[in-house]
Amino acid sequence: MKNVTDSFVFLGHWPSAGSFGFNTDILATNLINLSVVIGVLIFFGKGVLSDLLDNRKQRILNTIRNSEELRGLAIEQLKKARTRLRKVEMEADQFRVNGYSEIEREKMNLINSTYKTLEQLENYKNETIHFEQQRAINQVRQRVFQQALQGALGTLNSCLNNELHLRTINTNIGMFGAMKEITD
Question: Where in the cell is it found (predicted)?
Answer without folding.
Answer: Membrane
